[in-house]
């Protein structure tokens, strides 16, 4: 199957930003001539970097671990690209970067978004007392003490297994 998009992930370092001979590794995502660089927070020695391979020189002791990590990063970004391509979504390097770094995008759903969506959908069918309790739960979940965990990257709240479970319980209780 042929594709009309060009896609690539490679790694580089910036020698000019090196301190004491150590610098950060940068991932570069290229998609249709659009390019974005971002730091991986993985530090290597400048003299051990192989520009041709985009990784550490093989003879360096820590090369195996570092190069395995870089391959894992490349695999993860490529997987996100393939998932978006299969879903028919518009793909940009910025979106791939955000998905890799775990930033909240349109493609991810947080618990608070899930609860807000449920409130919008179910508010017409719920009694005022249930809505009052639900509002307290939302308020508590938005407090600084409550961590806002991502809901496993589900694009739409109705895809989340807990959401469908709660809707199933709600339907059984309404009978």
Write out the strand line-up for the largest beta sheet, numbering strands in chain order: 1-2-3
What's the main sheet like? 3 strands, antiparallel
State the total count of DSSP E strands: 5
User: Which H/E pattern describes the elements?
Assistant: EEEEEHHHHH
Distance between the termini: 50 Å
Share in β-strands: 15-25%
Number of helices: 5
List keywords for this structure.
alpha+beta
Write up what this structure looks like:
With 175 residues, the protein is α+β, with helices and mostly antiparallel strands. The protein is built from 5 helices and 5 strands, in the order βββββααααα. A hairpin with a 4-residue loop joins strand 4 (49-50) and strand 5. The N and C termini lie far apart (50 Å). Mean pLDDT is 77; it is low at 148-154. The strands form 2 sheets. A 3-stranded antiparallel β-sheet has the order 1-2-3. A two-stranded antiparallel ribbon has the order 4-5. Helices cover 42% and strands 19% of the residues.
């Amino acid at each position: 199957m042929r594709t009309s998009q060009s896609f690539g992930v490679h790694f580089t370092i910036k020698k000019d930003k090196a301190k004491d001979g150590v610098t950060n590794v940068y991932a570069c995502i290229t998609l249709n001539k659009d390019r974005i660089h971002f730091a991986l927070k993985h530090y290597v020695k400048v003299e051990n970097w192989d520009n041709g391979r985009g990784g550490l020189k093989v003879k360096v002791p820590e090369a195996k671990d570092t190069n395995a990590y870089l391959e894992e990063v490349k695999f993860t970004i490529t997987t996100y690209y393939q998932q978006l391509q299969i879903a028919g979504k518009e793909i940009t390097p910025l979106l791939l970067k955000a998905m890799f770094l775990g930033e909240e995008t349109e493609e991810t759903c947080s618990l608070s978004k899930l609860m807000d969506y449920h409130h919008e959908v179910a508010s017409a069918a719920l009694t005022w007392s249930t809505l009052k309790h639900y509002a307290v739960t939302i308020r508590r979940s938005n407090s600084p003490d409550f961590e806002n965990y991502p809901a496993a990257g589900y694009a739409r709240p109705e895809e989340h297994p807990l959401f469908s479970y709660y809707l199933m319980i709600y339907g059984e209780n309404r009978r």
